[in-house]
Amino acid sequence: MSRGVKIPKCKKNSITDKIIKYPKPKFVYIPLICQNDINITVLVKNGDYVYKGDIIARKRGNFKIPIHASVSGTVTSIIEKPYLNGKLVKCVVIKNDFKERMSSTIVPRKHINDYTKDEFIDKIRDCGIVGLGGGGFPTFAKYDTDAKINTLIVNAIECEPYITADYMLLQEKCEEILEVIDAVIEINDIPEAIIAISRANTKTKEVINTFIGTYLKIKLVEVPNLYPMGWERTLIKEIKGITYNKIPAEKGIIVNNVSTMFAIYEALKYDKPLIERVVTITGEMIKEPQNILIKTGTPINEIIESIGGYKRFKDIYFIAGGPMMGTSIETDEMISSSNLTSVLVIRNNSEQEAIECLRCGKCVDVCPAKLSPVLIINSLETPEKLKSLRPEKCVECGLCSYICPSKIKVRDFVIEGKKIND
Ligand code: SF4
Ligand code: SF4
């Protein structure tokens, strides 16, 4: 398995003095989707008054994750809005009354380690905590296992270019993050925790080292500044020298993103559901790149306007998520959601037109999932051959597109192969 590739990180612009807040959307559009599953039961109707943190919908089937109101106000309708996967998704529209009235079901606790394992799992499920690194997998499900967990890895690598949300959060909330890591390993009887950061990230190393001294079971580990080092499989192999079949728990490991850890902190301490997150808004066409704490369901165009808008609104395009794994979005009317890590606004570059494949094999060399992307492209019309090439193993890291000298959108073709094989 390739350890990864060194790519330009372009993070400087969005690193500022502090995370700013965007607290006042007139309307929020709460997306009725969970990990790309729209199998959701809506629990409110037009005209209902909802408190901030009230459960307004719940996922059906596996992992019955609740979806919460991110503001207090009145439900006005259910309409479709653009979502980070580029598709329209049904959303519950809440007219904000700006009173920030909290749900009466919310009961804060004094000590975050004052939970049994079962209470902990119930709490993070009921607060709707999902992976904030972009995956959106329900976090409680990782802990709800009979497997003996020996290591919690806190993933603070953020290896995608441009994105700095985790970086900024660690600068501001390092003490809280260490406190919750300590509590989580105590509650779940996990002997050690490792915070993984990129070797290039000296400032984060400094801040963690300032506070880590009293936490004897938490270690800081630096890994090479390569992409996709933040991918679970690459990271575990790098740190532990271990590979696994389906999930890391098979080998006694749980991996949580650092922003997810902070969401767990707020759930344990304040009983706060996942109703907001830090999002990086950046790219060469944004006047003032920032990291912003955004309520779920806030339209992205409102946010961009609030930070000074675009340098130019012509010949630009949007990427939801990072440039490697993200999705191109046609409109800035997209709404924010818990798995939206960043919005990138960049220049439309017509020089990027693809030419014929050179058969250089670079896409094969870099693929961390050991696939042959070029062969997958050539087999999209021959189902039997495609099946044997296993495109479903693709983790959508985008390295093949990045490395391709012919500028072919290799990843998109592999994803097409994945869908055909589904
Ligand atoms: S996008 Fe998929 S096929 Fe391309 S390098 Fe990443 S894992 Fe391999
Ligand atoms: S990297 Fe691009 S040009 Fe090279 S083999 Fe793969 S698809 Fe063809």
What layout of secondary structure does this protein have?
Layout: E1 20-22, E2 27-31, E3 40-42, E4 49-50, E5 55-59, E6 66-68, E7 73-82, E8 88-96, H1 117-126, H2 139-143, E9 151-155, H3 165-187, E10 192-198, H4 202-211, E11 218-223, H5 232-240, E12 253-257, H6 258-270, E13 276-282, E14 290-295, H7 300-306, E15 316-320, E16 327-329, E17 342-347, H8 362-366, H9 373-378, H10 383-388, H11 399-403, H12 410-421
Parallel strand pairs: 1-14, 9-10, 9-12, 10-11, 13-17
Antiparallel strand pairs: 2-8, 3-5, 4-7, 5-6, 7-8, 13-14, 15-16, 15-17
Give a structural overview:
- The chain is α/β, with parallel strands linked by helices and 422 residues long.
- Among the domains are: 117-270, 3-Layer(aba) Sandwich (Rossmann fold); 362-421, no CATH class.
- It is built from 12 helices and 17 strands.
- The strands form 4 sheets. It has a 6-stranded mixed β-sheet, with helices on both faces.
- The longest helix is centred in the middle third of the chain and has 23 residues, at 165-187.
- The chain is globular and about 60 Å long.
- The model has no long low-confidence stretch (mean pLDDT 94).
- It binds iron/sulfur cluster (2 copies).
- One iron/sulfur cluster binds at residues 357-363, 373-374, 403-406, 408, 410.
- One iron/sulfur cluster (SF4) is lined by residues 357-363, 373-374, 403-406, 408, 410.
